[in-house]
Sequence to fold (239 residues):
Amino acid sequence: MTAYLEQKAEAKIDLETATPRERVEWAADLFGDELIMTTSFGTHSEVMLHLVTSVIPDIPVVFIDTGYLFPETYRFAAELTDEYNLNLKKYRAQRTAAEQEALFGRLWEQGAEGLKQYNFMNKVEPMDRAVGDLGAKAWLAGLRRSQGETRAERNIVERQDEMTKVYPILDLSNREMHQYIESNELSYHPLWDMGYVSLGDWHSTTKLEAGMSESDTRFGGVARECGLHEPQGDVDFQI
Fold:
């Protein structure tokens, strides 16, 4: 835990051995109304939505809509928003998908730099705007160590730029996620049964095939992270 957090925390707990619910409760006690969560309405998203809203029913839930999500994702989002009465905060890029393609072409097909620019315009900048609008100091996110090597060494609590990030389900295995879903009668994303184990934009997400890892199903295996969970530093893209 950083010195910043140690100074604020009135009672210390061992977050590595704490349960996911205890981690959410710790974050809620520490950050109060400066705490937000994000959701992609992806494969296992209902786990985090169920977990967090059972502790903080009215927490702002930030949903970054790129305009390129699967139709099934939009329908799943609408269903879960109604089911949990989510305090949903939807954010989009400043340029529409059509305008971006007219000006820049299909950035996700233009190598690593094109993908980086695409992710900044459609995910990073809208998320930065959400953080500012909502006055957030801390962010609950559903990353898990088992999702790939870029997440394997993460800590339960991290500092990214000026934001404190808490990952309540970071150490849950796929089996434990399945058990949580089954025991609480939750739903997988409707594309799960079609072989999609990790979901994002339709143009950069593929089914899991023999010999592939979960990371290989996103961005053609070129990247695992979209920029939301990496320090940003200076960015010079036009938006």
